[in-house]
Design brief:
alpha+beta, Creatine Amidinohydrolase, Chain A, domain 1, 2 domains, six-stranded mixed sheet, three-stranded antiparallel sheet, elongated, binds glycine, binds manganese (II) ion
């Protein structure tokens, strides 16, 4: 375990909390039904600062002249380890994960008052988990009740996510190398679905190809519920049933990414189920691909976040006019938002430990400006539902093309590599 990236991040956070104390719990285990649990997923902030995978753990960071990182985690337990598997225990975890001190999780509530007493401020993600909020309020009240003994509770409360969101927005080298791995696995999973696809298969059979590639190559699994949407199902943005047959002459849209060491990839490809784009599918695809190219061209340090959406939107709206979905000038159609029935989402979002990652998009009224190391998706689409004013040959075509990129010093580094151009897709799907 290389704990250096995590302790570096803890140090960076410690510098920002002054003489405060920060409390960062991990996520609870969650029941799915009766006594069956969901697969455990740690809290992203906790993971960012520790790399510690077990539930029932919390980090306490003490700022000031002698900063300290403290971990509370489950104790070794021979019997529970027979049933549930290995636990580090505080002693081993302290060394392996680079903390200064570690204690049993069961001691947290008792120790918390002394850890927060005399600190200038308390940093916590208030309002995200009522049980943790209650523990912290209880510790504050315990300290306040001891004021005559010279104890003093922190005078200020701060939202811990504010500094952490800022930090998470710019990825460090360690994060970037993990994200490249998540992207490489997801890219080959998308290529695998193209090779496996046959008319008459069910959507879930392609979902199974994704899962196979993810697990076979060591990813944890899906980073989010995958979308495998044949034909007009592609026009339902969050279609996740994935249970319909794939029709011979339709397209299929697949939005799927994997998770590697907590980090998500997020890729969408749209391709012809029979391996060859029809003329009309080709026309619509070319518009979305051109919109993505325009967006990629607009990503560079200093550009406002919204610039790449605006660039993609212009190309999409011109395309809508060319396809006779809309009539009027591009500027007028953008101004009136007449394009919204066919393109109703933003062209991308921050990407990282969460698929829609932490980080502000606006600072006050201004869009955040791009900086090297930021990670984002680029995902224009066109969704043409059947409708009275829609030319019939376009009915039910839904196309999105989504890649993942880092803002680089030069501009933009797209680091997902699934087949994307019409020629690349038809080539990988060739059946001879
Ligand atoms: N897969 C979620 C998204 O594309 O935003
Ligand atoms: Mn996606
Ligand atoms: Mn996305």
């Amino acid at each position: 375990m290389n704990n250096e990236p995590y302790s570096t991040r803890r140090s960076a956070l410690l510098e920002q909390i002054g003489d405060g104390v920060a409390i960062i719990p991990t996520a609870p285990e969650r029941l799915r039904n009766r006594d069956a649990y969901y697969p455990y997923r740690f809290d992203s902030y906790f993971w960012y600062l520790s790399g510690f995978p077990e539930p029932e753990a919390v980090i306490v960071l003490i700022g000031g002249h002698e900063p300290e990182s403290i971990l509370f985690c489950r104790e070794k337990n021979a019997e529970r380890e027979v049933w549930d598997g290995f636990r580090h225990g505080p002693e081993a975890a302290c060394d392996a994960f680079g903390f200064d001190r570690a204690y049993p999780f069961s001691a947290f509530e008792e120790k918390l008052p002394e850890l927060i007493a005399k600190r200038g401020s308390l940093w916590h993600a208030l309002g995200h988990d009522a049980a943790w909020d209650a523990k912290i309020v209880s510790a504050l009240n315990t300290v306040r009740a001891q004021s005559r003994a010279g104890k003093r509770a922190p005078g200020a409360m701060h939202d811990l996510h504010t500094p952490l969101d800022r930090m998470r927005l710019r990825k460090d080298e360690h994060e970037m190398s993990i994200m490249r791995r998540a992207a490489a696995i997801a890219s080959s999973a998308h290529a695998r679905t193209m090779r496996a696809c046959r008319p008459g298969m069910a959507e879930y059979e392609l979902e199974a190809e994704l899962a196979h590639e993810f697990r076979q190559r060591g990813a944890t699994g899906h980073a989010y519920s995958p979308i495998v949407a044949g034909g007009s199902n592609a026009c339902v943005l969050h279609y996740v049933e994935n249970d319909k047959p794939l029709a011979e002459n339709a397209l299929v849209l697949i939005d799927a990414g994997c998770e590697v060491q907590g980090y998500a990839s997020d890729i969408t490809r749209s391709f012809p189920i029979n391996g060859r784009f029809s003329a009309v599918q080709r026309d619509v695809y070319a518009i979305v691909l051109a919109a993505q190219a325009a967006a990629i061209g607009a990503i560079k340090p200093g550009a406002p976040f919204i610039a790449y959406h605006d660039a993609a939107l212009r190309v999409l709206v011109q395309g809508m006019a060319d396809l006779k979905l809309l009539a009027g000038s591009v500027d007028g159609l953008i101004e009136s938002e007449a394009y919204k029935p066919f393109y109703m989402h933003r062209t991308g979002h921050w990407l990282g430990l969460d698929v829609h990652d932490a980080g502000e998009y606006k600072s006050g009224d201004d869009w955040v400006r791009l900086e090297p190391g930021m990670a984002l998706t680029i995902e224009p689409g066109l969704y043409i539902r059947a409708g009275a004013d829609v030319p019939e040959h376009l009915h039910g075509i839904g196309i999105r093309i989504e890649d993942d990129a880092f803002v680089s010093t030069e501009g933009c580094e797209v680091y997902t590599t699934a087949p994307k151009t019409i020629a690349e897709i038809e080539d990988v799907m060739r059946r001879d």
